[in-house]
Amino acid sequence: MRHGKKFNHLGRTASHRDAMLSNMATSLIMHKRITTTLAKAKALKKFVEPLLTKSKQDTTNARRVVFSHLQNKYAITELFQVISPKIAERPGGYTRIIKTGFRQGDQAAMCFIELVDFDENMAKTTKKATRTRRSRKSAAAAPAVEAPATEAPAAEAEAPAEQAAE
Q1: Strand partners of residue 102
Q2: 118 and 144 fall within a common domain
Q3: What is the DSSP string of 1-64?
Q4: Are residues 22 and 42 in the same domain?
Q5: 100 and 34: one domain?
Q6: Which of 35, 104, 140, 141 gives 112 a disulfide partner, CB atoms 3.0 to 4.6 angstroms apart?
Q7: Dihedral through CA 23, CA 25, CA 28, CA 30, nearest 10?
């Protein structure tokens, strides 16, 4: 029976799946964003989020536990020195999956998975105002109308000053 054994096997043996997820997690930690299929991204999210939680405590035991899953000392260094200080206050949800469409060859659902605190595009709080054709015309007409109006009061202000001087 397979009660309580719900996870995607991804069409691989256990050892192949573990190696693939370890390699993908290492790439995610090193590059902060990777492109993959949706099924692999969901499996990777379940694999890497506990490791990110474990990395919040920088102890020898935590490093050993994470190293047993990743097997890459450069990724461990990056994780504990760069990533863990940024995610220290975050209670969970360290990764984000954004769907990008379908692969040309086999129509597999593609996406990219990224670390939430390292996305420069989403981190910007300022939003660009989208302009339409109508707003451009009104914006171009408004300054033309305002320009003479601002010059006229300035000329009127100078005229009384000149009259007062006479």
Answers
A1: 109
A2: no
A3: --TT-----TTS-HHHHHHHHHHHHHHHHHHSEEEEEHHHHHHHHHHHHHHHHHTTS--HHHHH
A4: yes
A5: yes
A6: 35
A7: -70
Domain that holds residue 82: 14-123
Domain total in the chain: 2
Q: Is residue 101 part of a domain?
A: yes
State the average pLDDT over residues 154-166: 54
Task: Give dist(CA 72, CA 97) in Å, integer.
Answer: 24
Choosing from 123, 138, 153, the residue where a domain stops is 123
From first CA to last CA, the distance across the chain in angstroms is 106
Q: Within 10 A of 22 (CB to CB), how many other CB atoms are there?
A: 19
Q: Edge-to-edge, what's the strand order for the sheet holding 109-115? A: 33-37, 109-115, 95-102
Say what the pTM is: 0.71
Which residues are CB-neighbours of 41 under 8 A, at least 6 positions away? 97, 111, 112, 113
The letter for the amino acid at 90 is R
Residues 73-126: pLDDT tens digits? Answer: 999 999 999 999 999 999 999 999 999 999 999 999 999 999 998 887 766 654
Contact yes or no for 63/80 (Cβ under 8 A): yes
* pLDDT tops 80 at residue 69: yes
